[in-house]
Amino acid sequence: MKTINLPSMTQLTIFYYVVDLNSFSKAAEQLGHSKSHISQQVRILEEQFQIRLIERNTRKMALTLAGEQLFQHARYIVEECQAATNTLARLRDKPEGLLRITAPSAYCAHRLAPIMPEFLKHYPDIKVDLRTTAELLDLVRDKIDIAIRLTYTPPEDRIAKRIDSYQLLVCASPAYLNQHEEPKHPNDLNQHATLNYGIEKRSYRWRFLMNGTETHIDVKSTLACNTYEPILEAVTAGIGIAHLPNYVVEKAVSAGKLNLILTEYTPPEIPIYLIYAQQPSIPPSIRAFVEFLQEK
To answer: Do the domains 97-166+271-295 and 168-268 sit in the same CATH topology, yes or no?
Structure first.
């Protein structure tokens, strides 16, 4: 089988710039090569096909008929390469595509849900899959782009961007406090009905800061649930005292439906992180969501 000699992309690109700029020196400067290298590549191209492409002397250069025809092909190839490069650059820089996020359900309901429409309006080419769960999903195995974690210890093998923090607050309705003496110390809680997030025994131990030391107080639960909404409904209705994150109760507090109590014993803030996998280049959709939440 006869071997077909094909000009290389490099040779065609060099030939295009030599002709387009009408100068070996300018082509060398444009492409970052020496003038001798540029001349050599054009000569190799001519020798490979045994045809003269450029007539040149010390004063000027002129294309042969073959050179003119090859230049048209070379120009098309170079322009297409530039278009392809621009397309890839736009794809690299433009936030678009599917973004898969996981977050605790209450944080999603009270923090993400109110601002998600703004994010989607600002980035109409991003589609979001939002999975709400308290489970610590594996980003790679479960194909998650971003996980929102409420923790003191984010994973060391992932990128962790702190975006916020929250505090656990003790609250009760004005109606409940009108009927019961307000507790002045965490130890007074054993005289009250309490409402607990979580059904495990450890959820009946509320965190407080007393004399600069974090302390746990055991409470007797009237209602325990593994979601915040029933607890919020019950505490607003005056059933008892609850221990809830600030982002869950802030609207009810602002509306006067709940009062904060034992505020001098509020435990330290718990950080909130955006977690995503380490990679050579962060996808624009992830970068856009991270920056959006950091601003918010």
So the answer is: yes
